[in-house]
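TICKET: design request
STATUS: open
ATTACHED STRUCTURE:
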């Protein structure tokens, strides 16, 4: 039995297309949101008899369905991929409609008929189903909108449950989240992604293949052309968006609120405003650091080679492991001091040591023995850069973390670590 009694399929007929993969027959059809809300119940005994596992499945229906509800209600260009629904009990009947086109016969189109005793539950799309139900409670006018569904048969037997569980787990196990690089390239709601793409088309530092478009943040030493990676640029711009939002609204978005904000396309005024904000920042960035201007002016295919050297690591600005915490430190300083003009902070960093293998970066982001970058030290690099600007901006826990990291990395005692950190200055 289903956990929630659903309206029956009584005398319901659905145009559908029949297909088969392996030994599984399925039917592709359209159902309205109203039909889905009334007919589809949550997974319960259909897959597992153990109450503990059923409870786990119900707990997995977390508040993500509310975010889907918001997406349905707020986006006029909403779209979903097909729901996979399992149908059992009753007596579904398939009636083929044969037709011929250009001497080719087609027999996989027809009508599914139900007698009203059938039950249905989602094998894939349980969050979407619950999101649809919640959306219709908020806006009943949406119930006539149609979604594509794939219907498969389910036998309420040990063998049938095993097969449905296998389909359920396979669909969920191999469903991969969209990678960040793909989101940046395609998302039309995320203002940071939108603005990042605009920079790729308009800013000389990022145009003409100067940004590596991959799903990795790192840049290989074999890449002699790119300034940075697409993901590194997005992460930098995300930090800058916090400053833009605070300047515009007077408050800082907490991480959870920021994540939700990026799921809804803002007004064109905000998009254009943030584009302009980024243009101003990256223009100052180009002007402050002579090597950036020189890189832009160099049209050779290996223009970045000397800035990402195998011998000395190159320049910290051309390394995502240091570029992203650098921009993050600037944003943090601006937010802490309520500084609106980021060019003032950027100007202070014109004196920073930028050779990866030189002090203070050796053994922090550069391994002098292996002659390679040290990753996963972004937090430490950020604290160091903030301390260089003004050590008083670090919180007590951040200072203690910085001292502990120096003790561990350089093998010194607490007092010596404090001295080394106090010597972090913008030369």
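STATUS: resolved
RESOLUTION: sequence designed for all positions
ATTACHED SEQUENCE:
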């Amino acid at each position: 039995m289903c956990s929630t009694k659903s309206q029956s399929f009584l005398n319901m007929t659905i145009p559908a297309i029949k297909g088969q993969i392996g030994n599984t027959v399925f039917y592709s059809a359209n159902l309205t949101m109203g039909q889905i809300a009334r007919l589809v119940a949550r997974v319960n005994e259909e897959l597992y008899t153990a109450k503990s596992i059923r409870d786990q499945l119900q707990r997995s229906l977390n508040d993500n369905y509310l975010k889907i509800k918001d997406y349905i209600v707020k986006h006029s260009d909403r779209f979903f991929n097909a729901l996979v629904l399992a149908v059992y009990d009753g007596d579904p009947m398939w009636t083929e409609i044969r037709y011929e086109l250009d001497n080719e016969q087609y027999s996989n189109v027809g009508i599914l008929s139900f007698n009203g005793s059938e039950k249905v539950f989602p094998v894939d799309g349980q969050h979407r189903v619950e999101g649809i139900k919640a959306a219709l409670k908020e806006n009943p006018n949406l119930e006539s909108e149609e979604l594509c569904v794939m219907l498969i048969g389910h036998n309420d037997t040990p063998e049938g449950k095993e097969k449905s569980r296998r389909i359920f787990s396979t669909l969920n196990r191999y469903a991969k989240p969209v990678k960040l690089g793909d989101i940046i390239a395609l998302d039309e709601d995320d203002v940071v992604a939108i603005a990042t793409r605009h920079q790729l088309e308009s800013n000389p530092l990022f145009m003409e293949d100067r940004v590596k478009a991959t799903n990795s943040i790192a840049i290989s030493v074999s890449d002699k052309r790119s300034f940075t990676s697409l993901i590194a640029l997005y992460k930098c711009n995300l930090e800058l968006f916090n400053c833009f939002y605070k300047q515009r609204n007077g408050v800082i978005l907490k991480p959870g609120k920021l994540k939700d904000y990026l799921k809804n396309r803002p007004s064109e005024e905000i998009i254009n405003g943030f584009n302009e904000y980024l243009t101003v920042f990256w223009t100052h960035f180009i002007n402050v650091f002579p090597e950036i201007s020189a890189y832009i002016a160099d049209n050779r295919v290996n223009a970045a080679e000397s800035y990402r050297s195998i011998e000395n690591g190159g320049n910290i600005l051309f390394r995502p492991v240091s570029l992203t915490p650098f921009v993050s430190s600037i944003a943090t300083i601006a937010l802490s001091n309520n500084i609106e003009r980021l060019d003032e902070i950027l100007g202070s960093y014109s004196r920073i040591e930028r050779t990866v293998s030189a002090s203070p970066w050796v053994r922090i982001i550069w391994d002098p023995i292996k002659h390679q970058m040290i990753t996963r030290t972004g937090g430490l690099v950020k604290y160091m850069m903030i301390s260089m600007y003004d050590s008083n901006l670090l919180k007590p826990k951040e200072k203690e973390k910085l001292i502990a990291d120096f003790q561990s990395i350089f093998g010194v005692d607490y007092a010596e670590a404090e001295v080394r950190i106090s010597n972090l200055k913008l030369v």
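CLOSING REMARK: The chain has a mean pLDDT of 87. The CA atoms of residues 46 and 332 lie 52 Å apart.
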